[in-house]
Amino acid sequence: MEAGRELVWFAVKQARACLFAGLFFLAVFLMPRAGLFGLPRYDLLLMVAVAIQILMVALQIETWDELKAIMVFHLVGFVLEVFKTSTAVHAWTYPDFAYTKLFGVPLFSGFMYASVGSYMTQSWRLLDLRIRHHPPYWMAGLVAGLIYVNFFTHTVLPDLRWYLAAGVLGLYARATVIFRPRQRDLKMPLVLSFILIGFFLWLAENISTFYGLWRYPNQLGAWSAVHMGKWSSWSLLAILTFTLVANLKHIKAQIHVPE
Q: What is the value of pTM for the model shown?
């Protein structure tokens, strides 16, 4: 019975941690492809994302520190989008017109990465996350940096994702995430959490491409499911996001050490 209550609380807090992502993707589903009131869909989605972010801070659902961290994810994601959609790479495209496109990328796209950061920061606080046997922060940061660089270089150099994944397995082999849905501490391997988050991001990507938010080259004629290989990319992105959150919290803890 107690285990059931913990599971319910876990589900409730997970849903709460997904508030930004949930509201944003609800807007994606409801927004007409042609836009509204003479404004293109991408521009309206940017307005919705900014409005949600402002409301979450105003209602103290999100702290200013969390917002600052999320803006880092926004920037990291937008730079990646500019590279991936460039004519040299053309990994995917944003086919619709928008006034708020920069280098061919609609500005709302950064909020899709920010939604992952929002989920991470909210989960950390709501579930009282603690990491047991976390590897040295500089090593975790180095691997995360290599993961990010590989997103750019794999188009011209060998793709190192599986080598990096093997490095992650070794680095986080002993790491366990401890969380408290209600009263009891539960735990799971940290690597498993990366895999699960990557899977749900892959599902969200399938839904987004189905609604034409962006398109891969093989989806231009007719929609088809996103290749399962993208699951690994999203899991690596989850590792990158987690490392940013963990390192920012570590730095903040060092700055505010009690005298």
A: 0.82
